[in-house]
Amino acid sequence: MIEETFVRLRTHRHNVHRYRQLLKTMLTDAERQFIESRLLEEESAIETLAILEGASGSAEPGTA
User: Fold this and answer.
1) pLDDT by residue (tens digit) across 46-56?
2) Looking at the domain assignment, is residue 9 inside a domain?
């Protein structure tokens, strides 16, 4: 279960990075709004997973 959570966190972080890169490009207002919305959803998902993992008492590998 913990490994699955780490995979999900990594996926969400990758998506955040991708969306931030897209926001640096020329976009229509509609595209920018959509990407900003998706970015907020991904960041929220990361926070939720981090809270759930913190509540279970585990820490992400590689962090102190």
Assistant:
1) 999 988 887 77
2) yes
